[in-house]
Amino acid sequence: MIGVSAAELISRLVQAKAHLDRARELIRAAGSELHQARALIQAALEGTADQSTAAMVDRSSQQLGGAGVAVGQSAGKVDEILTRVRGLGGLGN
After folding, report:
1. Is residue 48 part of a domain?
2. What is the CA radius of gyration of the chain?
3. 75 Cβ partners below 8 Å, 6+ apart?
4. Across the 93 residues of the chain, what is the mean pLDDT of every consecutive 10-residue run?
5. Domain that holds residue 19
6. 2 lies in a domain?
7. Do the Cβ atoms of 61 and 35 come closer than 8 Å?
8. From CA 10, how far away is CA 79, in angstroms rounded?
9. Are 50 and 2 in contact (CB under 8 A)?
10. Coiled-coil regions in this chain (predicted)?
11. Domain-located, residue 91
C-alpha cells in the first residue's frame, strides 16, 4: 500500500471493520435461522431412522458458529491495527 496516505489507510480500516461487523451480524442471524430449522427438522424426523438431514443442519450450524468467531477475531485485529495507526504521531484521525 505504498503511496497511500495515513488518512486513506484509516478510512479503509474503518470501512473493513464496518464490513466485518455487518458480516458478524449476518452470520448470527443465519445461525439463528439454522437453529430454528434444525428444531423443525428434528421434529419432522422424530421416530424415523433418517437423522442425516438433522445431523447435516447441525454440522452447518456448528461451522457457521466457527465462521462467526473467525469474523469476530478479524474485527478485533482490525480494531488493534486502527488503534496502533492512530497512535502513530502525526497521522491524525
Report:
1. yes
2. 20
3. 17, 20, 21, 24
4. 76 90 88 82 74 78 85 89 78 50
5. 8-72
6. no
7. yes
8. 11
9. no
10. 6-40
11. no
